[in-house]
């Protein structure tokens, strides 16, 4: 059946002209029904076209489609692939991080693309104007819905789908690899039998032969990696000799590089005909690679692929592998989920992976099936060969997985408290009765009903009630007399910033101590300022966050951690010390080589946590404490010194430019304005850039304190009410303003500082004082600008 016959106006949106057998079977359900749909099908069978069909139908009706992709790499791939929709006049927008979100573009988009985590964050804030676009979704496509069974991410996907159904009730189209309990997923989503499909291996375009092989383990884990590598090469070699290709999955980025280097030598020693050293044209093409080791490797027909490579290098490796220029490719799991890149032979060398946040963990069984499903290139191979290289003690477990698969389980129970708190914070769960109603919308409830012993279904209601009581006891939720549930500031912040509840409690405790031990903290229009916690205290608090509980420090990393920290923080667990060392070295832009493999992931998570800590400090300790967190966050992110960190608030000034300016004695945005274009250019910034830097510095606050006719003397016992003006000659921003006398607070306010703000200053000649020191302070809780403080001394006669 031709695409043009079914959807003539969207024929150019598909990369093929005819639907295959599996796609044809779903056409009536996709196009003639508006009810939800669930389809399980083998990898590479073409199920993405089902999503695209549903998207086309939604666009034809003038609606908005949301595509929930399992990982960031796949969102990027869809952005590239779906240029086809943009060529037809539709807008595709990938929703990434908070800072990069363009609300107007998201609102205009016809197709939104998000990961589950981004969708969770956006739907938690759906009542805010910035995220209002999620309220208008007409179709939600959940790609790889078997991600529900992912230990760390499954609960996120589950609550996102349930929440979307309550917020805007879109049509749900859920796609998955073949799953044992597809009917349960369909029941959860209210997909009728006619819209529920389970396609078996007979729908694979290439027959799959999958098995489990073992190796002889020794006592050295590092040596075992090479034993598994040789076993993997034994399995791949016959196919490579026959003109096929091999895709080998390993545990970590560094392993892809080391395995590729060893394989080049091993294939040469085995005299396997690979590589293109005599191909001058290909040799010239490889000069476009950014990674020198990759450039040397691909000439020998061996390459590696991981998330740390530049986009250019990943794109080139993928293209050359598709063309057959690369014979053996080593990859992390990126290629299993993110990119459609099949090979005749697929080998999983490592069944355990190193996760920067979780330590060494087993591959999720569904990840294993996803990887093996890449075996066999449609149109090139009649059979695909897939192998798991397993420890002898674990081989039977993987054989059972290949023989019978596994049902998708819910992972919500492990995160039930945090997700229930989020629903209460959003107002979607408003009273005690709502709690169970919400629970019944989850896959957890459906799965528990079908597997009552595994999930203790009879005790489910008691477990939910106990979770709610715990949230109340810990201060995340409060109950009114009419049994209504309300979030506390603690519960609201925990939800908004996506925190584990133990972390939220730790941040709350620090912020309350900084605010003087009270719950009131900053109240917006007025209220006292607490003392900002030190950088060291904030870093320790973040390093001990529950999000980092599973971080481990390998033996080769501990010396590097000690080199950074010395004897500091000896009371912390090794994993927390590793996190702390990464954060401290990031502030100095000097992360040791031994820590760099995990540093990026840990640093990105830490930046989110520091931002959250800043929000707690703003709520409970006031703007000065929040400003301290903003400066700390900027230093961890950029490596800029404490003296010059304010420069990073200027749009377009990163670590390099900030360093160049600081070396010339230009440390603040105010210094930039004082230096002008000529001075910034003289500091070493190119002329055109210097002009933009100065122009953008004008967008930031430029504060001066005008004391007016402030007295310099006053008689003992006299009172002389005065005013001072805080004038802003730059861009407006939220500011904390305070007046103190001899260190005691007299006036404090938090306001949007536009042009100016006048502060009352009662001058009283205290009989027991010889002089009074008045100070006016201005801090910006949301910006990494250094606090501003000016003083005047008044003698008491």
Name the features:
25 strands; single chain; 7-stranded parallel beta sheet; 6-stranded parallel beta sheet; alpha/beta; 797 residues
Walk me through this protein's architecture.
By secondary structure, the protein is of the alpha/beta class. The chain has 32 helices and 25 strands. A 7-stranded parallel sheet has the order 3-4-2-5-6-1-7, sandwiched between helices. The protein has a 6-stranded parallel sheet with strand order 8-15-12-9-11-10, sandwiched between helices. β16 (477-479) and β17 (485-487) form a beta hairpin. It starts with a helix and ends with a strand. 47% of the residues are buried.
Describe how the helices and strands are arranged:
Layout lengths: L2 H4 L14 H11 L5 E4 L7 H13 L4 E4 L3 H10 L1 H5 L4 E3 L8 H6 L2 E4 L1 H9 L14 E4 L11 H14 L3 E6 L5 H8 L6 E3 L8 E8 L6 H21 L4 E4 L3 H17 L10 H6 L6 H7 L3 E4 L5 H13 L4 E4 L2 H4 L7 E4 L3 E4 L3 E4 L2 H8 L10 E8 L4 H10 L11 H11 L5 H8 L3 H8 L1 H4 L4 H14 L3 E3 L5 E3 L1 H8 L4 H14 L20 H9 L11 H11 L8 H14 L8 H25 L2 H16 L16 H9 L5 H14 L4 H11 L5 E4 L6 E2 L4 E10 L4 E9 L2 E10 L2 E9 L6 E9 L8 E9 L1
Parallel strand pairs: 1-6, 1-7, 2-4, 2-5, 3-4, 5-6, 8-15, 9-11, 9-12, 10-11, 12-15, 19-25
Antiparallel strand pairs: 13-14, 16-17, 18-20, 20-23, 21-22, 21-24, 24-25
Helix pairs in contact: 2-3, 7-8, 9-20, 18-22, 18-23, 23-24, 23-28, 24-28, 25-27, 25-28, 26-27, 27-28, 27-29, 28-29, 31-32
